[in-house]
Model the fold of this input.
Amino acid sequence: MSAAKQKFHQVNTGVDKVDALGLALGQGRFTDDYSFPGMLHGKLLRSPHAHARIKSIKTKAAAALPGVAVVFTHRDVPRIAITTAGQGFPEPSPYDEFILDNKVRFVGDKVALVAAETAEIAEEALKLIEVEYEVLPAVFDPRKSMRSSSPVIHDEKDCEIVIPVPYEPEKNRVARVDAVVGDVKRGVAEAEMTVEDEFENQTASHSAMEPHCAISRLDENGRLEIISTTQVPFHCRRIVCRALNLAPRQVRVIKPRLGGGFGGKQEVLLEPYVSLITLKTGRPAKMRLTRREVFVSARVRHNMITKVQVAAKKDGELTAIDLYALSNTGPYGTHGLTVASNVGTRTLTMFRCPNLRFSSDVVYTNLSVSGAYRGYGGTQGILATAIAMDDLAERLGMDPMDFYLKNVISGGTEVPILKELGEGPVLGQPHIGSCELAACIRAGAEAIGWKENRGRPGGGRFRRGMGMAVMMQGSSIPYIDMASAFIKMNEDGSFNLLMGATEIGQGSDTVLSQIAAEVLTVPTESIIPFSSDTDLTPFDVGAYASSTTYLSGMAVKETAEKVKEQILEVGAKMLGVKKEQVTLEGGRVRGPKKKSVTLAEIGSRALYQEEQFQIAATASRISHESPPPFAAHFAEVEVDRATGKVRVLRYVQAVDCGTPINPVLARGQAIGALINGLSYALTERYIYSKKGVMLNPNYGYYKIYSSRDIPEITTIFVPSYEETGPFGAKSVGEICISGPLPAISNAIYDAVDVRLHRTPFTPDKVLEAIQLRERG
Amino acid sequence: MRLSELKKVSYPETVAEAVRILAEGDTRALPLSGGVSFVFAPLKSVEELVSLSRLPLSYIKEEKGGLRIGAITPVADLAVSRAAEKYGDGVLARTARRIGSTLNRNLITVGGNLVQPFIWSDLPTVALVLDAVVVIQGPGGKRTVKAERFFARMPKQLLKAGELVTEVIFPSLPKNSRTACEQFGLTEVDFAYLKTAIRLSRTGKKCLDLAIVIGGATILPQRAPGAEAALKGKTANQVLVNEASEIAAEEIRVQRDIRCSEDYKRDLARAQVRGILERILLDQKVPEWKLF
Amino acid sequence: MEIVLTINGEEKRVDARPSETLLDLLRRLGYQSVKFGCGEGACGSCTVIMDGRPVNSCLVLAVTADRRKILTVDGLGTRQAPHPLQTAFVEAGAVQCGFCTPGMILSSWALLEKTPNPSEEEIRLALDGNLCRCTGYVQIIEAVKLAAGRMRRKKKPAGKKKKPAPGKKKTPAGKKGKKS
Done:
């Protein structure tokens, strides 16, 4: 049943984002907007070397600078191995990082911490710290990481991984993934056409407009309170406690307005440091990264080299897909294993193909630290499969659109490879619920005029081309992640909705309020959401894995349903009838003979008048599957053969996300992810020196799109309904970022007959490929 | 710490007063026009800042078929000026529209962009191709310097103590002259990788005289004399235009840029010189939006 | 160094530190709506209107800002009487995380002051110094068009349509479940 057939009154409606007016008025308060009396400012000294031991470190002069309160080195902090990656516990990440260490592993790694009266004084104090380094050889090419001749980046004895998976730091290997279904060798032998190729995607910065920031202070009862730009308040609390030998009961983490995350704030980057300062001095402490530090010392997207072989029969039926990813996780493991696993799950599960193999090596290098980034492996994998399949289709003389229609799954398909690859344990035979990928392909093709326009590059200096790609993501991590909510009723018929689910700009406060409002038959304005305070809101893993609408939404829905039952009970009493005789409709409990009571009357009675009790409930959910959203993307480009510049003229994306709980916000997610994907495909890159220094840590030289760069965009949501999701919803937060890399590569091929496999497709690369082709 | 020695900020309201303060202050006083370059170049040891923002030097005047532009005119004004649009086929306005973003253009001044060029600065290239004249006022009075000399070295080296650029004069152009410019960046708002400005005078397709200026390859704009010689006095056709663009690509000096190879900058020079000549000498039509 | 600033119509004598930018100063004075995003004049999170022009406040040395008139988004509208741009941004889905929003609204305001009926090109140009990583700009551009239309109709004499009140659920530019 699709959303259009069900009659919703709050869901599937573009209600105003609940915090939007406050933000438009300039009243939204982000972490850096808070200050406390006596607050100190922290700054980290950053390593100039890619790989070095700290032989000695002299801080006396820095500590003596007027205005400096305290200086920390590795000698002054507990040596406890942690991961900064915000994921479920026990984490699938190695504990390979120390808040301050006697070793540095990338240019920009932390060396020492200074707290001073102002950020400027702290900066000055950094210059007075004397460090003697023993510079070590470094490795920057992930292809070389595992060679015995490469330096071992984690030679310390106390790094470890706490889940039973292979972890081989002595080989610079963080993880190895292997998953097989069927027999790839036989599949290739059965094929009548194969394509084998290698691809590479570059490192990139999330570049949320708000830099990372954290504040800590002791409250009036001596508890540590942290305000932070965190996507994962509960994971943050746990990890800070581990790092500083504290117990969760001693710590409170609060997330206020947050200025964009995209995975970059799914790390515990600053909170341990401000906490150190506060615990030592008793004073509040703040740290905010400069934009340079965000580029250099925060987190980035995993650069990967992927190899794929796709094989098919003459009629286009896929017989085998073999995918390998070499993932560069930088010097700390963080999300290495899980991102790599997703390279397989977000590609191989889309196709009806009996023989599949996915394998991956995740390796350390001394470049930037990789972490979670929207798309999370899917982006990297789809780059490879969508170009390889485009190539394969061409060699078979098939339109890629027809190739995909022949091979993509439909709803209800079983996907055995998920059992091997899913991030969590998979019980039973995993299968896909809703899938409207075929409808996405058809709708997108029609909207862009695919059949009429491709294959017509024209002549002269400027050539046009069209390309397409299909993609999927997931919705939550089954059996691993949990969400919960609490709802209580007020005497005016309004409800407080308390949830751990983390609003990072994507609209979760709004969407989850809509879900509650739908169940309680009230306008969304009657729901007062409050989120992401580890003292006041019940647990939620946080904003990642595209889980908020799907998983947190189910928790909210169930909580609201429990509250509804209590309302019906009270209402029935007030009407003098049995509970079975009443319903909740339009904000009233309605009984026989057209009698009804309002929610305000019910709320008031329950709180003040008779048989008083607080109408309230809590519920938790884990998910049992991760129903993928699907999308088909179509790009039209114009290539300038004299400069290599690629202009995207038109872009169509057709998306299946189940029921869009809020179509306006869902559209915003789809377009926002797309634009990020476009600049990722064409303009964003990290330029490193031979010594591993990132040379362009600013917007002058790291280019993201402005309003002047965006093409003409069409976004289509195809009707779909996911039975396991709240009111039919899946997710939409990540998926669309994965389209542009392959769609544009395929479009460039259509325009100028060159296939680009390494991103970004900057003009000089495109020109070089064109010139190479011309020379024969 | 920035400006740790700062003692005073003054806001002179006449040029004479500004000159006096700067002459007295010498190297301890720094004049600020748009005042934004501190983001790229540090300002540590200055004792006095002299803000030029209250001088009556923000104007764009049409005079004798040319333009007089005050030194503290924000480039945003140049970007929308009808007078600038009419002059020199609008290259000044078009170039101004490419300087940074809308917000930057409200701060960056014409004078500032000319006096303190960075490798990506945009106005020096068109000022050179249009034979602009820079007006300087100082303790010794008023003098003028032609663009060719102004940009032969870093312009600040030309300014004596107390001297101030007050105005830029763009001379009137002969009826048969055409001017055009192009620049290349990765995104619409970007520091240009390379820019080219060409001015020529022609009858039919015969090129009587031309100036080809390339910016963004070196800090200061440079001419392409070999390419110019290939076309001057000749009747142009595609072959000649291609040759000239090839010569330009080969003859320019190129400084290292972390963003692309030297070869690519030469490819850009070739493409831009050719593209502009095709439009203003061979009258080929290319839609505006395709050009950078 | 003491300077005089007029901020949102209020004249203030403030002590500007030599090393600080106008951005630092404004935030120090409590104008938290003006944000730090990059410190290099590229992202526009720090946009203010200075003497009628939208500028990056991180590119202005505070000590050189004497006698300037500053407008922040706080001076454009209130909760009781939001500016049509603020309402339009809310309705069109132009606000996601909201960090770029004050700057976007100020740049849009400056555009509409000069160009009450801007084309799509003019809107894109006016906003080219305000970076947003959340929305992809489309809904922001739609919001500016929406506000421009309403502001033009408001200026016309009686006979206009009733404007929908803010906060009502609406899908103005993107229809639910359909192509948009």
Summary: Chain B has three domains: 8-51, 60-170, 177-290. The first helix of chain B runs from residue 15 to 25. The mean pLDDT of chain B is 94.
